[in-house]
Amino acid sequence: MTIKTSEGEHTATTAKVTLTVYGTNGHTAPLPLVSPTPPAFIPGQEAQFDISVGSIGQISKIRLEHDNSGSRPDWRVDYVSISGPLVSG
After folding, report:
1. Which one of 11, 71, 73, 86 has the minimum C-beta count within 10 Å?
2. 3-class SS at 65?
3. Residue 8: what are its φ and ψ, rounded to 5°?
4. Helix (H, G, I), strand (E, B) or coil at 81
5. What is the distance between the alpha carbons of residues 86 and 72, in angstroms, rounded to a whole number?
6. What pLDDT, in 10s, does the model give residues 50-87?
7. Class of domain 2-81 (CATH, top level)
8. Could you state, in order of their start, the residue ranges of all structural domains in the chain?
9. What is the pLDDT of residue 5?
10. pLDDT of residue 89
11. Which residues contact 37 (CB under 8 A, 6 or more apart)?
12. What does the H/E/C string look like for 25-63?
């Protein structure tokens, strides 16, 4: 999974970010998106995450959230891309 943070001022975030993935058979719990090499969400940069969604069926939508924590909680996302073998069974 890839998230690109928009370019410009006040686009990066220090907040805790979670992703919930919804499918035809249910949804995941909120998945924390934590980078092994912080900070993850830098203006104009892509952040890569390995996620597993279990057996929720075909993905229908996502919810990307942050908790407004940290010294710079502002965030603007350019795009989110989810691909690969995410669904098991």
Report:
1. 71
2. strand
3. 115, 180
4. strand
5. 31
6. 898 889 998 999 999 999 998 989 999 999 998 866 54
7. mainly beta
8. 2-81
9. 95
10. 42
11. none
12. CEECCCEECCCCCCCCCCCCCEEECCCCCECCCCEEEEE
